């Protein structure tokens, strides 16, 4: 899928795009000839993804920063606007996951998870939405999680934040869809990203063991690749996504718990 | 709709040829799309008309039974990669004003057909690489007189979830898509999403086509 999605020249901002799903989405959007602003907490990670985009013949710019801060978001979006134009596609992907039982989880870590995973999405969305409404075209794709639907042991804050994103997506879509702004979400199941290292540590097993365990919990016997989630995200950034406004597309391999 | 590079056919099945044709137009598949209808070519429900089978490589009747129809499809075009089952129109009628026949007809033409089609085609899709089944079901609007429609639709959605569990090990994904009777065209983009090569991790889900 390259060039057939109508994203040629569109300005996209992908948060948390220094690795994993976010990096895969940034690269796929660039392959569709979108101009991709790459956000990551650490500047070197944002630059690394931009380097990959440029090496593939695409256009990208690094906009590192912590999305939990409204001021930082304001500044980084302002950088995008002054450099390449208003953000037309926002992919809210930045997230953290600290695996710990609810009573063992430091309240500060609970708050930080909500700040990044839920409030960060609010900051980014609120910052770019006026421009989208004015242009009467915009796409907001949020990477939620199946854990936002079913919850997960050791991930109370993460599940709460992702559940909030799913509900926020449905609510915001109703507010703005008639103005050409389509808001959707994806709820991935287990994806083969560096996050699995954290899961393995929490479970006290090896990375291969956690991959095997998660695979066995799906109906189709495997975990997802970041590229699969990226493919769905790029489609949801296209004009076709109108039919799915407000929905969260769960890509879980049929994992039920 | 990305062209299917496997060379395997897409099969669209339904009790109402007009609905089958409408879904077929939404899929916009290549020439290897096959329509399968229980009563054969021509309007089944009386709502059909000329040109309904345009765009299909063939229309296969089920006069000789589902297994025979499926065998013919496989013999002539190969094992299906995609099976789409379509809902049949359900007359609006209050439950208190309807008889057992109304109930049974709604179930037979929707749930029964979807189950029969999967029973016939799914075994033939095994062992040929990834395949996907998409079951379309009506989205109840909330207006009166939709008890039969709602029951049939809900049953199809749960059938899809259960089938996904049964067929996941064979590399076959199964999902349901609900669509309004008044906006069948909205199913097109959702079908397109589910037929993406990158949608192979989406299974056992119910997607709603269109906004409300």
Describe the structure.
- The complex is a heterodimer of chains A (257) and B (212).
- Helices cover 48% and strands 13% of the residues of chain A.
- Chain A has helices at residues 20-31, 43-55, 70-84, 107-135, 147-150, 156-176, 195-203, 207-216, 226-236, and strands at residues 11-14, 35-38, 59-62, 89-92, 138-143, 181-188, 248-251.
- In chain A, strands 3-2-1-4-5-6-7 form a 7-stranded parallel beta sheet, sandwiched between helices.
- In chain A, helix 7 packs across helix 8 (207-216).
- Chain A starts with 10 loop residues before the first strand and ends in a 6-residue tail after the last strand.
- In chain A, 53% of the residues are buried.
- The mean pLDDT of chain A is 94.
- Chain B has helices at 17-27, 66-77, 100-125, 147-167, 187-194, and strands at 10-14, 33-37, 58-61, 82-86, 131-138, 172-179, 206-208.
- A 7-stranded parallel beta sheet of chain B has the order 3-2-1-4-5-6-7, with helices on both faces.
- Chain B is α/β, with parallel strands linked by helices.
- At the A-B interface, helix 9 and strand 7 of A face helix 5 of B.
Q: Sketch the topology of chain B as an H/E string, one letter per element.
A: EHEEHEHEHEHE
Percent strand of chain A equals: 5-15%
Strand line-up in the sheet with most strands of chain B: 3-2-1-4-5-6-7
So what's the overall shape of chain B? globular
Most strands sheet of chain B: 7 strands, parallel
The quaternary state of the protein chains shown equals: heterodimer
What helical percentage do the residues of chain A reach?
Answer: 40-55%
- What's the count of strands of chain B? 7
- Total helix count of chain B? 5
Beta content of chain B comes to 15-25%
Poorly predicted residue ranges of chain B:
40-50
**Element string of chain A (H = helix, E = strand):** EHEHEHEHEHHEHHHE
C-alpha geometry of chain A = globular
Structural class determined from secondary elements of chain A: alpha/beta
Tally of extended strands of chain A? 7
The radius of gyration of chain B is 16 Å
Q: Classify the helix fraction of chain B into a percent range.
A: 25-40%
